[in-house]
Model the fold of this input.
Amino acid sequence: MIRVTLPDGSAREVVRGTTALQIAADIGPGLAKAALAAKIDGELRDIMRPLDEDTNLSLVTSRDEADALELFRHDYAHVLAEAVQNLFPGTQITFGPSTGDGFYYDFAPAADRGPFRDDELPLIEEEMRKIIAADLPLTREVWERDKLIAKWAAEGETFKAEWAAELPQGEELTVYRSGDGWMDMCRGPHLASTGKLDPAAFKLTRVSGAYWRGDQKNAQLSRIYGTGWLNKKQLAEHLVRLEEAAKRDHRKIGREMDLFHLQEEAHGSVFWHPKGYRIYRELEAYMRRAIDGSGYQEVKTPQVMDARQWEQSGHWGKYRENMFVIPDEVPNIEDEGPIVSDGAEWMALKPMNCPAHVLIFRQGMKSYRDLPLRMAEMGCCHRNEPHGALHGIMRVRQFTQDDGHIFCREDQIVEEVRDFCALLDRVYKQLGFEKYAVKLALRPDMRFGTEEMWDKAEAELREAVERAGMANDDYGWEELPGEGAFYAPKLEFHLTDAIGRAWQCGTIQSDRVMPERLDASYIGEDGERHRPVMLHRAILGTYERFIGILIEHFAGRFPTWLAPVQAVVATIVSDADAYAKDAVAQLTAAGIRVESDVRNEKINYKVREHSLAKVPYLLVVGNREAEEGTVAIRTLGQDGQRIMPLAEAIAMLKGEATPPDLRD
Done:
């Protein structure tokens, strides 16, 4: 017999080998029908998996949405793989994880056919629905390593055989069968059967290319994406969000508003056009005022540093695959021979600003009275992201961080983090984001530092969030095991945009490792050398990505202070051209970014064009307005117009155009 303790504290003695489903049925038939999986001592497991020792058990139902969605999406991925192999014999399977809103699976198509196509998705969906309707049991099996590798090899599943051979010796190898036939190697867990899925709650969305194990040197695969939900209603709501997201796509709006472009000659780097760079400059100026008012000193550090510096900081060993390295020698200019010799010294474009800021801190003796020292940099960095991972201006190779580092004493950490939380809160709300979540990312498996160091750093961040009043459900407070950086735990701040999507932007990390590795110190009150604690922090994250988020959040309809063109004066008749010119001059003198439109076009055409360009205010003038010194104001997104004196309109626009931190 074993003892099973339930969430309400009650306990049951059951025979070893009893399943969670049997316990659910004993409690009540309704619970047995609703139960999808089990949590055994907090670990999600199959509901049909036998219990073999004393345990704490909770049953997962659709009310436990996060766990339920993870299960459903994992199962949709397996059903997708089975459907593809049913329809296209000779296709090899690889991996198929769940994602934030669905799932995907990577396939190696048979040699006699090309990659999968989007027009094949409806056929695959129909086959998936047949598998779901068959209500096939999903059964877990444990296999011996050699037998499983031999089976995969015999069936031509070379990718699965390769992966099975590389799994650590002693690790239990498990597969899941769908019915009596099809199987996939997987750790699980899964639902009890395919029939638990809702056949109307998923949709395959697109096909793209991928590489085996994410390496461009390996075989190219076809990746089929899908979105999966618990029921048809959730799917319908998600598809509406996708449709809205497509309308807001920053790449589409960026083209329409002439903000920026990207091209292959500079993979992952943004070509900012005048209007886009105006948004960038306004945001940068706003952030400079924010950090200046919070006691930061702005610095500028080199783009390229010697590899030895990156070795000392730890990045060369932990992060080199994401760095652009540069030979420190004159390249060979002859046609023959290698461009770089074997004896070249190596440097690297900086992927981050932290080590350079430590080097500034080390210049001159620092006293405990000098701390905290808050250092900021609008630092341009480069990271060697794979081409396939690049996404508009959201994920790029060259980017500028609103970076900052606070060097402080142990007794100052909590207060500095609390103050940072208050600064971030003010910035986000002034930029139009009322809702965001605060999460604490805890120590990863691969890390520097002692356990005591990590215990202390994590506890300090918790306390700071509590003092800031954010460790509660209103701020989505959550702890994320294993998600910290290799040198420090961190607080993450996840914005929620206008259509409910979450974006991780802000962060602050408490780091005792880098000051030690780079020998940063200050003289304490006792006259001895001490290590400062280094707080790495950013609010926007990167300007490129944050502007992309702003574009999609506002759907291009920026608040007036951020809009690249804040107003257009448009004429109805050519007789009003002189008045329009005078109005533009007065608006410009008041600091308004304004353009004129005196083309020989109908006013309805002009209204439509400037509305598509997302100009906040259109000031329409004709003979009457010229005579009376008025303008007819049309506000973007509103019907009708208002007539007001030009001076009054200028005052109103000047107020709207004032950044939120400069308003009375």
